[in-house]
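Researcher: Can you fold this with glutamine in place?
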Amino acid sequence: MATLQSSVIGFPRVGAQRELKKLIEGFWAGKQTEADLLHGAQALRAKHWQLQRDRGIDQIPVGDFSLYDTVLDTAFLFNAVPQRYQTIPRGLAQYFAMGRGLQGAHPTTGNKVDVPAMEMKKWFDTNYHFIVPEVTADQTFTLSDDPAIVAHLREAQALGITAKPVLLGPVSFLLLSKATGTGGAAAASSTDEFERLSLLPRLLPEYVKLLALLAEAGATNVQIDEPFLGMDFFVGMAEAYRTAYDYLAVDLPASLRLILTTYFERVNNCLDLIKRLPVHGLHIDLVRSPDQIKAALDAVPADWILSLGVINGRNIWKADLNATLDVVRKVVAQRGPERTWVATSCSLLHCPFSLEFEATLDPEIKDWLAFATEKLDELRVLAVAGASADTAGLDAQVIAVLEANRQSHAARRSSSRVVNPLVQDRLALVTPDMRRRATPFNDRYPQQRAAQRLPLFPTTTIGSFPQTKEVRQARLKFKRGDLTADAYDDFLRRETERCVRLQEDIGLDVLVHGEFERNDMVEYFGEKLRGYVFTANGWVSSYGTRCVKPPIIYGDVDRPNPMTVDWSLYAQSLTPKPMKGMLTGPVTCLQWSFVRDDQDRSVTANQLALAIRDEVNDLEKAGIRTIQIDEPAIREGLPLRHSDWNDYLEWAVDAFLLSSCSVQDITQIHTHMCYSDFNDIFPAIQRMDADVITIENSRSDLKLLRAFDRYGYHNASGPGLYDIHSPRVPSVQEMNERLAALLEYLPYQLIWLNPDCGLKTRGWPEVESSLRNLTATAAEFRRRY
Ligand code: GLN
Ligand code: ZN
């Protein structure tokens, strides 16, 4: 029986047990030779290709594998190596120096070197980070003599697998780059973008050479990723796509078919452009944007491949195979089965490897999930069933799978684990006044200052204090059962007390307990909320070899018991100074988890908000009068298209307000954000109406402050006085100067002094010295004002 082709856009490279991480880190530590590393990586690639083949995948990607990052690989492939790495001979040493910097002995001369890494940025709206290529106005590109992707293609072929090479397209490659020498960091403006695209004529001949090599090595379909087709266009962008693909078409080997691949956003607005490009297929993300199928069907030429990205590469839920099948069949009815592919929506890089390793996961919930390996099976079923017009004529086995899938979804929909009527009723009763402080800032702030006896230029920290080796070891021992709960608790209390005493001694005004009991700012709360579940092995790549294990929100969220009150009360009992309660906000909890796909994100955010509101109320009842609700992720939740920003900011800020507005006038709400670059969302930050916002700012010069000025931000704020990302101790002089600069933009009555982020990654000695200098700065300015 005919089947459709199934296609994988990319596969998680780190391996079922994070083998690649171990290999690479072993190599960095000098425990593995380069040969071991290369050999191990090859074996892992082979394993992943074979796994995909065994699961019935037709279009298996090569070129999705990387020792650090695939964007870095592309820069390396075309020899776009910034000058500062050029003394290091080409090879792994140079490659890793670009990805993570090199400090120590030069690999050939043995001299001391210290080159920083290239910049890292979030990959669109995922939590994966890529290395930002650097290009200069006189940039040249030269295809590597021995392109890794060609070698990988041959490796796959030796295993009998005709794989599909995956390339980052030339336009998206340049748009991901930053122009250096022309004010690099500000590369986001469209004029810069235009400049980068002017490098296309130099880059394209190298792509042509590469395509020729791929054809020679036996490739047929080539996946060419142009995710920027889904983003906002600016002047010159459409022209760049035309230039690029017209150029590639001229000498394209007859055996090759280019499949233009988009993901993370809709492309319906540029289908007119796309359909005129001389390519052979289009992949669209129908999970993110199911509605674009209609426009795509109308636009995509009949002789192209239309690749339907229907299996979610970014989340962990089982697909609704029966509903998806309806969509696939409609497409097949219109276009026929030969040129219709079923595919993952984007790379499976953003999914954990396999459910097979989740022995302790609740079986009811486990039945609702599909990780990367299970998603291969889903694709296969769609490929088989999608080709026939109805299910009745299918193989009994396929029918059984579809039926089981239907039952699993029905069970999930009606499970009492998912639906909690109490939570839903509560949410339905939320009124606008629950999202509003009773009194305007100008009236409540003086009350707060009086109640807490706050001086001018009050000093505080962002929450965490050093998570030393001892702290991490104690936690590990406790988790393993080598330390009793009582002993662990005693240990944490001693750490907390030490931290409080030190803050008193330093003379800080608003103290924190130090967060020693927390592993991570979302996991800690997730473990205490209902509706969350944790995996044993659900690792996904974050950057380089680093992986994260996001918790899963599967059901209506609520807070059965207070989460932080005991720690805050204990810390408060040690000191007469104000103790700041410390919570993670609803949007950050949402952003850093795998979230439900059966309700709008905004609903989940509001449920989280109610849970945090309960905690805020309990802290207040217990006498805690300063409460910080961290929202470092609010900016990164911004949609990729500008036109979608307002909707998001509306509900995201609403969720924050719901979590924070129940308190009395004298209770002071703080929030903290990490990204300095939020000029563009300032009105939303104002609407959050936190009494005090502390922000990472020390690396952003005065850009942020100008925004404060421009928007007339009128609540109190603490733009970080120094950068905690380095062990350097800032001098009093430096902090004085910084504060003086802040005072040009902000009224002195509303400024707080604090570091720019939590101190968990720092050591005690530098923390102590830095904070002593910070309080010295406060003392100096109190004298002056
Ligand atoms: N309160 C948290 C801490 O200090 C905030 C962390 C963050 O900004 N990401 O660690
Ligand atoms: Zn921060």
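Model: Folded with glutamine in place. The pocket of glutamine (ligand 1) is lined by residues 462-464, 515, 521, 582, 630, 632, 672, 674, 757-758, 760 (CB under 6 Å).
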